[in-house]
């Protein structure tokens, strides 16, 4: 979506073209996983509680809607703040042949956020749901036995660096995956397919979306930072 969003907002590509591209990307990614790989128990409403934690929360439609809207709001705030901050000047310097910057100056926060509802739903499905449904593992039991008085220096460092629960570790790894994948896909595609885009420009545009993904992950961690969830 970041690549198509760039074309629609600043290169006068029609919104219908953008949405057609999004549908093609989603279908081409979703169908192979649906046809050739079993769905995770987290995404199965009839999965046994022994496999999925917090099942009642995961199946709560209001939770799914609220977390999707929350993720969309984070994306919207990052993009809207960039539009009214550093981004216009950055685009002028690093995107030769840019056709129209009015989209940055006339952007409305509510409309920008509404445009990311689909991305928000995808983010909560990829980040929040798997983390919320993760059950404690052997690592959690090992960390629970940690004693700072008898632990070695290496054990203490490891505990402070990666002594998180299974849910927090799931959220951290998936957030890192989303940020890196978004940055690489957006940067490479922007640099190689749009004439006049400098490498620094593609990297900056990609970094904005990676930062948004990290913020979404951080907000989800904050939402779940209560007893029995992400601690």
Features:
mainly alpha, 12 helices, 71% helix, globular
Q: What does this protein structure show overall?
A:
With 231 residues, the protein is an all-alpha fold. Helices cover 71% and strands 0% of the residues. It contains twelve helices and no strands. Helix 4 packs across helix 8 (117-133) and helix 11 runs antiparallel to helix 12. It starts with a helix and ends in an 8-residue tail after the last helix.
Low-confidence stretches: none
> Based on DSSP secondary structure assignment, what is the total number of beta strands?
0
Gross morphology: globular
Q: How much of the residues is beta strand, in percent?
A: under 5%
What's the tally of helices? 12
In short:
The protein has 12 helices and no strands. The chain has helices at residues 2-10, 15-36, 55-58, 61-83, 87-94, 102-105, 109-114, 117-133, 138-144, 153-162, 166-193, 199-223.
Give the secondary structure arrangement, pairings included.
Layout: H1 2-10, H2 15-36, H3 55-58, H4 61-83, H5 87-94, H6 102-105, H7 109-114, H8 117-133, H9 138-144, H10 153-162, H11 166-193, H12 199-223
Helix pairs in contact: 1-2, 4-8, 4-12, 5-12, 8-11, 8-12, 11-12
């Amino acid at each position: 979506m970041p690549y198509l969003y760039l074309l629609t907002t600043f290169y006068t590509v029609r919104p219908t073209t953008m949405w057609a591209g999004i549908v093609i990307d989603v279908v081409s990614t979703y169908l192979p996983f649906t046809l050739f790989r079993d769905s995770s128990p987290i995404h199965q409403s009839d999965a046994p509680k022994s496999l999925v934690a917090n099942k009642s929360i995961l199946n709560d439609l209001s939770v799914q809607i609220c977390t999707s809207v929350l993720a969309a709001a984070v994306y919207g705030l990052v993009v809207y703040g960039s539009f009214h901050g550093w981004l216009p000047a950055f685009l002028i310097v690093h995107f030769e042949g840019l056709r129209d910057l009015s989209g940055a100056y006339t952007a409305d926060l509510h409309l920008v956020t509404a445009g990311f509802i689909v991305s928000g739903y995808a983010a909560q499905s990829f980040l929040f749901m798997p983390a919320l449904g993760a059950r404690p593992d052997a690592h959690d039991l090992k960390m629970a036995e940690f004693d700072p008085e008898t632990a070695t220096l290496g054990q203490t460092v490891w505990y402070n660096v990666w002594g998180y629960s299974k849910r927090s570790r799931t959220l951290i790894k998936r957030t890192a995956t989303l940020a890196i994948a978004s940055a690489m896909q957006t940067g490479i595609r922007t640099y190689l397919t749009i004439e006049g885009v400098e490498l620094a420009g593609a990297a900056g545009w990609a970094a904005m979306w990676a930062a948004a993904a990290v913020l979404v992950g951080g907000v989800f961690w904050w939402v779940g930072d209560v007893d029995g969830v992400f601690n």
